[in-house]
# Entry
Amino acid sequence: TILDLYLKTTRIWILFFKHGNKIFLDFNIKNLENKSVVIVDDVLNTGLVLSHSLKFLLSVHIEQIKIAVLVNREHNKFPVKADFKGISLSTSVNETVKVNLKGKHVGIYLV
# Structure
């Protein structure tokens, strides 16, 4: 999973990479000091990845943090709420949502 951050006043894309149970940041977090941040995620499942990513952001003073997701599955196990949602899907925990933003088959698929 990749989470992208967008700064309100300056466009800076920051990538959070999830590898196993660890989240990695490819950016100096101090550059976000006193900024407004929007986190964009493709699919919000349980909120685990977003909650771990927020740990990095809470280490500096940020004016505000908003969360935008393309798909909200409503299976929250962690206290993470999307401020902006593309679509909310009622799914079982056994179903998988795939988001494809490249190629001929752009769309959101329930598989």
Residues 55 and 81 are 15 Å apart (CA to CA).
